[in-house]
UniProtKB/TrEMBL annotation:
Residues 1-194 form the Aminotransferase-like plant mobile domain. InterPro entries: AminoTfrase-like_pln_mobile, MAIN-like. This is Aminotransferase-like plant mobile domain-containing protein. PANTHER family: PROTEIN MAIN-LIKE 2, PROTEIN MAINTENANCE OF MERISTEMS-LIKE.
């Protein structure tokens, strides 16, 4: 699909004509909002630095000098957070029960959001680092986070990466490329995986899927 992408028109050039991924596709396949405030973050690191920001809003310190085992950079390096370190921190240290203070639950939720957004919805090409922009964007007001047009930003990221990886010599792509995968399965059935098993679901599964995005189904 990347070889069929034309940066001049942001469309795929196919034998039958031109096609592209639209905002409608994004909201149907993923359920992400396509209206609301633009997803815009800071262009420079905060005056106090990333370390104090993480400590103040997430409640823990990230090493800035000790390298990750087997790698040459610490978990917090040049405004980027290690995905593997963040995931391991959540798995090892996060315990939530009925006695957990609400403030702590909120902090855990923000950590999860940072990992989800920075590592899955807007990943870099290595899928190893989360950009510092998400630290500020996802540690602010809860209502403001929910009112942003995340679907539009995801589609813009996919367009940008398709324009980049369609060039000669490109070997990787970042962004939420699972959107392209789902879109291709839906609109170009010859790419969709074939399941030899009969497609049957019981009532519980159907009820569970009823209100989920089409991409999950």
């Amino acid at each position: 699909m990347a070889e069929r992408w034309r940066p001049e028109t942001h469309t795929f050039h196919l034998p039958e004509g031109e096609m592209t991924i639209t905002l409608k596709d994004v909201v149907i396949l993923t359920g992400m909002p396509i209206s609301g405030d633009a997803v815009i973050g800071p262009q420079t690191k905060p005056e106090v630095g990333w370390g104090p920001l993480i400590r103040d809003r997430l409640g823990f310190d990230m090493p800035t000098t000790t390298p990750i085992q087997g790698r040459g950079h610490p978990p917090l390096n040049a405004g980027q957070v290690s995905v593997s370190w963040l995931v391991s921190h959540i798995q090892q240290e996060v315990v939530i029960n009925d006695e957990t203070p609400e403030e702590q639950v909120e902090r855990y939720a923000r950590i999860y959001l940072i990992g989800l957004v920075g590592g899955f919805l807007f990943p870099d090409k290595s899928n190893r680092w989360i950009q510092g922009i998400w630290l500020e964007l996802l540690t602010g007001d809860w209502d403001a986070i929910g009112q942003k047009s995340w679907g539009s930003a995801m589609l813009a990221g996919v367009y940008r990466e398709l324009c980049t990886c369609s060039k000669v010599g490109a070997k990787q792509a970042g962004a939420a490329m699972f959107i392209l995968q789902l879109w291709a399965w839906e609109h170009l059935p010859m790419f969709a995986p074939l399941d030899p098993r009969p497609y049957r679901r019981n009532d519980d599964e159907l009820n569970f899927l009823q209100n989920l995005p089409y991409g999950v189904k």
